[in-house]
Records
---
Amino acid sequence: MNSRPPTIYDVARTAGVSKSLVSLVLRGSPSVSEARRAAVLAAVEQLGYRPSQAAAALAGATTRTIGVVIDDYRNLWFVELLRGLQEGLASHGLRIAVADHTLNAHVEAHPLDGFLSMRVDGLVIATEPTGAMRVPEGLPVVVAGHREGLVPGADVVANDDRLGARLAMEHLTDLGHRRIGHLTGGGGAARLRAEGFAESMVAAGLEPRTVPGRGATTEEDGYAAAVRLLDTAPETTAVFAANDTMAMGALAAAGERGLRVPQDLSVVGYDDSPIASTHLLRLTTVDSRNAEIGEVAAERLVARIGGSRGTGAAVLLEPELVVRGSTAAPRSTG
Amino acid sequence: MNSRPPTIYDVARTAGVSKSLVSLVLRGSPSVSEARRAAVLAAVEQLGYRPSQAAAALAGATTRTIGVVIDDYRNLWFVELLRGLQEGLASHGLRIAVADHTLNAHVEAHPLDGFLSMRVDGLVIATEPTGAMRVPEGLPVVVAGHREGLVPGADVVANDDRLGARLAMEHLTDLGHRRIGHLTGGGGAARLRAEGFAESMVAAGLEPRTVPGRGATTEEDGYAAAVRLLDTAPETTAVFAANDTMAMGALAAAGERGLRVPQDLSVVGYDDSPIASTHLLRLTTVDSRNAEIGEVAAERLVARIGGSRGTGAAVLLEPELVVRGSTAAPRSTG
DNA sequence: GCCCACGATTGGAGCGCTCCAACGAGCGTA
DNA sequence: TACGCTCGTTGGAGCGCTCCAATCGTGGGC
């Protein structure tokens, strides 16, 4: 019933050339006559031939694909990262394969097993790296968006979370806010942002008040943390959340308490994720420049695939404040 | 510098057995003695051996992976679908590979090329199928979440959008709403939901008013459509949106006009996506049961891989209304 | 004590490609 | 005319597995 897919030999036969010539055409060799190239391409089209990735990978030394490990499809920050990566890799003929860490946890013991079996040419880890992430020596790896370097020898590309937090705080203090709370969550990035928050507050002579959610950085966590903050410190005029999703929860908590945003309460997020720019949130946030992070990560990867020895260097991009409608001067200044 | 990864021969040598025995152990053959199995597993561990997927795929007839084509990572409806698929496939030793249609459009001419090159054992199309999606005869394919069967021979698993729309409308009319508007978008599902809306309205003796966004189904589309609706028909007391994202835009439009939800305006979405259950939206919506769709799709795929001839049958799951905080009786009934 | 059957183990062939060394044909040059 | 070159093209080897037929070893039945 299912005739096996055509092979390179089938193409060669119908084009009247050797299998080697077909291979040359497919890989874009310049030393093929126009006539033969056309004949081969026609045969490919006619037969609906698709080269077998498996055979190509086995025969060649390389798969021309980069594995990207993300945390969870629901955290949309990876979308822009992927776009940047794509852009940087496509010109080098490299493709991307994405794996979701939480989803795959059920099926694979070791989080990178799938990609290692696939013999990817490089790896982008867009997750909080764990100790279980042992990587074969010599495999180019870059950790993107996270700073804790648990992967030995990996390059690191991220935004400067501490600086981003300071940008957010400057914005709020410039507006005149003095009683500012921070909603923090789990993970390294959240910790750095919390540190940046505390530093800024102390530098401004203000008392830093940091409230955790329930361990993670979801909307629910943001809501829970904001409820706690607003109930225990009702004099608060501004909230800085560890990310946009938590900020969304804060908006909900504010609404429930009859606080209007931004008139009664200013809210700042982090990441500039797609929800931040919606009409409903119009969230002032810090752009962590994930597309650029992807581009730099691609660059690093390509360099290391090209043979340059990786040194485990870290690149920190400067985040940028994005002012939207969720921040304003406090009602009663002073 | 980079010593090539160990092969099955390396494992065989250090375990003191033949490569065939290693292969048997790896694939869980019952007819291997405990002693040898232990020796092989120890060697695998010691060498950090990972079987080459490429070689396995080439040698075996099958890759044991199912390709899933999704539209756009930002449309989160696929997350639950993936979970259901995973669940249904894992027990059969099948893994999942995900490709994003919009992202890959740049790198591949044909949307399925990557998966066909990979020689996936089956395909789940979780996108509006296009004519360009030619699939080799005999490859098990199921279209998930969409009803327009442009893929010949494919099974279809989706929710009954028309029924879902009717459920939403019943809910609103039961609450006493009479002046109800519908925000519609592009795509087959949106069309079916719009039809269900119109049917329900006509059946109830009401005038159906349907407003398109800007061609798609984003938050922006929902906002634009809602603005148009509320400005041209301010007597509207309830809005039914083609999906949750559009409903989010509607909430924004309502807020801008000083309409409180649900007191002044009820809003119903569709999909029960993760944003619907947030504290900020508390959106009444229709659960399209995407996890179950995934499970049924997995079942179909497994059956067809197992040899049963596909007939292009369609399975329609019954959607369920999820009532949250965005709907209530209209202010002035009648 | 011998033979057979069956479970455990093995080597060989081959999957569809890429890479490489080698080939033939035409050209310019001596 | 003979030679070396280059360009375009070719066949063969081999990548690391799976599958299969063949082999080995051992215990039970007679």
---
Amino acid sequence: MKTSHTSNSQLLNDRARRLLRALVESYVREGQPVGSRTLARTAGLDLSPASIRNVMSDLEEMGLVSSPHTSAGRVPTAQGYRLFVDSLLEVKPLDSHEVRILKERLNPELDTKSLVESASDLLSAVTQMAGMVRVPRRDHAALMQIEFLKLSGRQVLAILVMNKNEVQNRILQLDREYSHSELQQMANYLNEHLAGLDLRQAREQVLREMKAVREHMNTMMLAAIELGEQVFSDQEQDDQVVFTGQIHLMDYAELSSVDKLRSLFEAFTEKRDLLTLLDTCISAQGVQIFIGQESGHKVLDDCSVVTAPYNVGGQVVGVLGVIGPTRMAYERIIPVVDITAKLLGAALNSRN
Amino acid sequence: MKTSHTSNSQLLNDRARRLLRALVESYVREGQPVGSRTLARTAGLDLSPASIRNVMSDLEEMGLVSSPHTSAGRVPTAQGYRLFVDSLLEVKPLDSHEVRILKERLNPELDTKSLVESASDLLSAVTQMAGMVRVPRRDHAALMQIEFLKLSGRQVLAILVMNKNEVQNRILQLDREYSHSELQQMANYLNEHLAGLDLRQAREQVLREMKAVREHMNTMMLAAIELGEQVFSDQEQDDQVVFTGQIHLMDYAELSSVDKLRSLFEAFTEKRDLLTLLDTCISAQGVQIFIGQESGHKVLDDCSVVTAPYNVGGQVVGVLGVIGPTRMAYERIIPVVDITAKLLGAALNSRN
DNA sequence: CCTGGCACTCTACCCTGATGAGTGCCAAGG
DNA sequence: CCTTGGCACTCATCAGGGTAGAGTGCCAGG
């Protein structure tokens, strides 16, 4: 019935929101705890420091800000950043000039690996933090051609050409020696039956044929199918993710203890934790933000992660993002990650 | 004519040498400046601390040791380490047990890239420092087979198979469209003329044929040669070197300022400086050691680098080594690097 | 030439007091 | 009821000083 009611329903009244916002912005800019005096000057609210102290006290009680010690200013907590990001932040889209610069740096002529690396480089260069790109799932790459090359004895090199620009080699150990022309025949057979499918479909198709029509096939066809099975067997990709620009993380005061850096860099070399984190984002649509402990990985307690999935042919095939200190310029980082994901998707798409 | 003469001729008398050696060993072990008292106990010379102080004073004058401040012990200088390494150090070869363990971890079945990465991993794991391997020069890989695969329009994929296990892909842009069978013919032609050569020889051969017998050839042969020229044109390898285990460098107190770490890690991502350093070692035979500033690169002032070239088919094809603090256990590191180089060479060799 | 003794030097550590930034609370005023 | 100035208070930071400990350089005696 009163204004206080309104402010309850939105948890925070307008003044507190403005102050929290000013506080976060100031802290992100300066990296120093923000005092009531500074806020009085910068928030544009025409309040005395004393009043602001009262509000701060409330915010602290709500767990949105905290002070390192009695007589330091306030610093946003993870929760504070969260509220800021969710409802105080105005993400202004990048202007077209910046977008063009980003776009130019993602040359669709490159092969997938280089493209992905460029994207990660781009992210880390623009944000001055660590960039990462989960590489496209090969499952969705359209198979264009498959060839076999005899290496020696029972060793055969399988060459898969996908999406015009992408090539994969797999060395197979066969159960017996095949002649050059036999291999050629098998390749022809597989090409006829699998071209245009993506890798997963190809795998399924091979398995289907193998089970269903075994008896109707001649030896060659059977061998071809068996070969196909080997080619398309799920292989783990060891280079599933690219990280670049980790070095930038050394420049942030809040991470600059050697211990923290050590465990962060460990996470980058281990990859595992970060991979699982990225994989949880692959199903989300649009930008995801993990602030501090939200990521659930202890090494990232003082970090925030901003990710966005990217699409090829209308389907999500990967995720990219950045890692930096919780104290990052979200209003800038978020659109950068967002746009980069779209551009990478577009670049990958343009060649299919 | 006196003993002093003898000691001049070898620059240092026996006592001083023993003390320097004890000092280096103690400092490498403990990481603390070594006082005269400690030396008196550990050097096994039955001298009083006071006498040792006199010797230390001499060593300091010669620039072999220095003290961080008036009342700290002594620490070896780069020159001190140099003398230690050159003439005081006894490198005991690794016992066969350790060698076997190293050998087992270098599986010759792997392709070149994985093998090289294993070697670097091995170096960093065993030494607890950063490992690096300059990858084998492709020039010396024997060409086994060359195939062309039509991708789309004028795009052709060239596949080079070398040394049984190694495959290289290159995408070529042609001046006109070639049919499947034309490509096949050209591949046959090149295979006939180039098989068994290494890449450099192949390149030279192609250029020779191109110039010499141009008029005697039919169109197909000419086209084949031109294609060959494109395939063998010098391409820079961007992954010329592998670094692993940089994270270990964070554990050494003498490097643990964030600034130093930063510039070190920058050197690892830039690669350039380290590449040139490694390349100077490629012509040396056997283990090379750069202590502190000897490497000539400022970032490595507090580091030592130990390298060894490795051979395939009697020819040096690459270098490997480790980077760590100047305060490292040389008597252990040197044989490890030495053996690893031999083992990597052997592993690479066993598949040619 | 070696050695014990001694004065000296320098770091690391702790305690101290001063300074300044910033807070919490309160009572007065709109 | 909200705002505000005032005031006491807290705490980090810094400089100064004093002490303990490690280690040195030098000297005189063996």
